[in-house]
Amino acid sequence: MKWRHAGLSFLVGAVLLAPSGAWAGPALVFEPYNGTVFYAEDPDALWFPASLTKLMTAYVTFQALKAGTVTPDTKVVCSLKATQQAPSKLGLPVGGEITLDVALKVLIVKSANDVAVMVAETVAGSEEAFVARMNEAAQHLGMTRTSFANVNGLPDERQVTTARDLAKLARAIIVEFPEHADLFTTVQLQVGKQLVRTHNGMLVSYPGADGMKTGFICDSGFNIVVSATREGRKLVAVILGEPSITSRRDRASDLLDNGFKRYFWKSLFGTSLDGLAIQASLSTGPTHLRDSVCGAAKPARKVTRRKGSRSTVSSGAN
What we know:
The chain is an alpha+beta fold and 318 residues long. The chain has helices at residues 2-15, 53-67, 80-83, 100-109, 113-124, 127-140, 163-176, 181-185, 202-205, 245-261, 266-269, 290-294; strands at 27-30, 36-41, 75-77, 97-99, 188-191, 194-197, 209-217, 221-230, 233-242, 271-272. β1 (27-30) and β2 (36-41) form a beta hairpin.
């Protein structure tokens, strides 16, 4: 029986292997409604979420909307603190206003760091109070290795997560708040005279893509949580630490493609997000990719790049 189990595990691993040449950062592909995992690589390695943080900012705001403490028409006012955030930004002046509905769209589509602070101050009275709600929500969702220190994902050593924890968050958004699904599919919107376009190019390039969020700071590399639906089947991929936008898109596309091709295997060999065995040592700190992603003489990690891939560098959380 032991040998049979070992052989079965090897067979499953061979079937669900990621394509060769993929960057070896954390990754996880799962079905959101029952939590079945299709592929996992270092799902418990600590990582900087960058603007994937805004998924939790949105989740806590959805909770407030459901509770009735705010409405889509609630005015969201730009504070001095909001104007002091690093790009990406909407760029309203102090005292400028938009509705909470518009603010949520700008938060996800443009990944605006100033708007994240505006939303937090509107919903909870201060960014600090909102961050406390974020950490409470993380614990409630079983995101045991996640800690939030700000609402937008700008660099902070205390702000860490894992691919597994982000998968739990994405699943909660999809299952608990289906009424907000259209928010994550928006490619562009008009805000005053500004035409705001999404950072999530997979909404355009990947057939069936219908969400969710990208993220980048130098120390995290290029991150994405992306959902897609084909023939009534939905999958979500979490990809962390890619060296470029191109490699992020390619790896997410490859893993989702493999997931859809092997969809039937879930009923035979699937395990849940909670049941997935820990696949990384519980290190005390996150990986830092600044040198390898944003430029230095010696990369921090060994990288296998696809031909023609490029690194794009920005100082903000996008």
